[in-house]
């Protein structure tokens, strides 16, 4: 039996749908904080609340493999993830997979510290593990992509920094391949798109999809933050976006390894196709 925690999120739902293409639905469990949100997935649903460890023990009961999808509550993720790892240890699973961040154990990426700490907890558990270090999701740019499609300007402060990103669906398919395949124990995969892109490339893709002129305008971080605040972006989120652009400018998301396309057995989704899906 395969249990996917965080199944109510966008990535989790896609992983479940991919798993159903490889194994019978009665061998899949969707673990979610709000079970009613995943009742439509056509698999067994169990409550799995990262903040309530007692639900995790029940959710993982009888599990053979578990996918721990990282939580989205920055600052709370290490204890949340630790609770899942402890439940997986009690269940004696044969594989624990975890969605991490690029080079989480060595990178100064703003997102890395909680992922690094979780990876350490996973390794210390003694369970066979697979670390899925997902690069950026194209969908994370959705707000900026939609705005650029309307205004003709993609504003950022990443310079010519590269992003080896791809679609959320590609990462979900990669996770499903690991959960249903063989030989992935105690492996760390650096996953991302086959072709890294700059924000200028992203603007060009938006132009291709919309048929309108769209250009990338690179500004100083302070100007970028001011523009985000003026557009109504909350201060904490604006600060995060600017910090991430700085990380991008420094090349922290640039590496293309080909590991995701090898897991998929096909190329990753082209940038323009990912943008088209967002704007559809």
UniProtKB/TrEMBL annotation:
Q: Which Gene3D superfamilies match?
A: NAD(P)-binding Rossmann-like Domain, UDP-galactose 4-epimerase, domain 1
Which segments constitute the NAD(P)-binding domain? 6-180
Q: Which Pfam families match?
A: NAD_binding_10
Which InterPro entries has this protein been placed in? NAD(P)-bd_dom (IPR016040), NAD(P)-bd_dom_sf (IPR036291), NmrA-type_oxidoreductase (IPR052718)
Q: Could you list the residue ranges forming a coiled coil in this record?
A: none
| The protein, known as | SDR family oxidoreductase
